[in-house]
Known about the structure:
Layout: H1 13-23, E1 32-36, H2 42-49, E2 54-59, H3 62-74, E3 80-83, E4 95-100, H4 117-125, H5 133-141, E5 146-157, H6 162-171, E6 174-185, H7 188-191, H8 194-199, E7 209-219
Parallel strand pairs: 1-2, 1-4, 2-3, 4-5
Antiparallel strand pairs: 5-7, 6-7
Helix pairs in contact: 1-2
Amino acid sequence: MLFRLPGVYRPQRDTWLLAEVLAGRELGPGTRVLDLCCGTGALSVAACEGGAGWVTAVDVSRRAVISTWLNSKLNRRTVRVVRGDLVDPVRTLRFDVVVANPPYSPASDDSVRGRGRGRVLGLAWDAGIDGRAVLDRLCVAVPDLLAPGGTLLLVQSVLNGVEKSRTMLEERGLRVEVVASEHVPFGPALAGRARMLEEREMILPGQRIERIVVLAATDVGSRAGSRPSSFDE
């Protein structure tokens, strides 16, 4: 059971797919985990339950920060929760695992929403015209937060270009592979924008299923290395 203030992203299949991948990793008392775009803190709690000794959660939304803090207390877990713009509050720190379920829903435009509930809801999933407004920033900034051998676990839709994320992360010296994928029905955001996506030819007429993937991008301490086989979008 997770507490969720109105406007905070409700954990869906992408959240739980990422949690399943996280559960498969060896986490211990010395493992430092960062949960970016934490929302309700579901992944922070999962990291604690998996054995991580140090968990930090970051979100730009005050409601998300409050939700995560409350859920850590309700589940009797210790999570450091901070509010800030993506990696800004943790730029000087290094982590063994970074998990990120960022907004990646294509929006009608790239403008910032106004005040009130509309802006809060927009922060939960809107990510620009191509859905990459946050993904691109993550791919650039997160590699600098990884400790030697550290890994970014990132979930996104194939609608946003998995190969672009792979390329951007590889350019930062990380080894990237798809470690999980699943076809899922459109969530509330995409379902409400299906006609717009059809007009942009981002989906086929009548398509109401998308494929989500989890990318594991690992610091290997070298810019060299062979490229994994490409993912068929």
